Amino acid sequence: MVTTRRCVQGWHQTCDADTAVPGRSSECGFTLVEMLIVTMLVVIMAGLATIGYGTAVTRSREAVLKEDLFRMRDAIDQYFADRTEYPASLDMLVTEQYLRTIPDDPFTNSSTTWQTVMADYDPSNPLAQGIYDVKSGAEGLAIDGSPYAEW
């Protein structure tokens, strides 16, 4: 005799008295092994998503850092082209309206951690030594293995 029962989840289960396993209930549900397999798949997928998210955040910070460095270096070059001398400080780029503000370093979250590189000493004008380049003050390595401080 074959009977079809409707389970709580809406699935159909066929119960046959001849093929029933002795000692096993014909109730609907999942076995422990099925639950463990599904749980492990969910944990693995969550772990992969977490790793991908962390990498995406780091890549976006690196992109912002590259853009900030490009803009500040461009402002220094424009300042030098206009005045034939380098700015004495990064604040001078703001006061002379070459930059609206000094951007925050995306890794240190501060605008005061930028490391400035002074121009070579000019013996004909010893007091006019200014900022030639700017670098990040962040410690650590980028995804490509290069230090942020060397960008």
Provide the helix percentage. 25-40%
Mind describing the biggest β-sheet? Answer: 2 strands, antiparallel
What structural category characterises the helix and strand content? alpha+beta
**Widest sheet: strand ordering:** 1-2
Q: What is the H/E order?
A: EEHHEE
Using only C-alpha atoms, the radius of gyration works out to: 32 Å
Mean pLDDT: 84
Strand % is 5-15%
Gross morphology: rod-shaped
Question: What would your notes on this structure say?
Answer:
With 151 residues, the protein is of the alpha+beta class. It has two domains: 1-30, no CATH class; 32-150, no CATH class. Helices cover 38% and strands 13% of the residues. It is built from two helices and four strands. The protein starts with a strand and ends in a 16-residue tail after the last strand. The mean pLDDT is 84.
Strand-helix topology:
Elements: E1 2-6, E2 12-16, H1 32-83, H2 90-95, E3 115-118, E4 131-135
Antiparallel strand pairs: 1-2, 3-4
Keywords for this entry:
151 residues, rod-shaped, 2 domains, 38% helix, two-stranded antiparallel ribbon
Short description:
The chain has helices spanning 32-83, 90-95; strands spanning 2-6, 12-16, 115-118, 131-135. The chain is built from 2 helices and 4 strands.
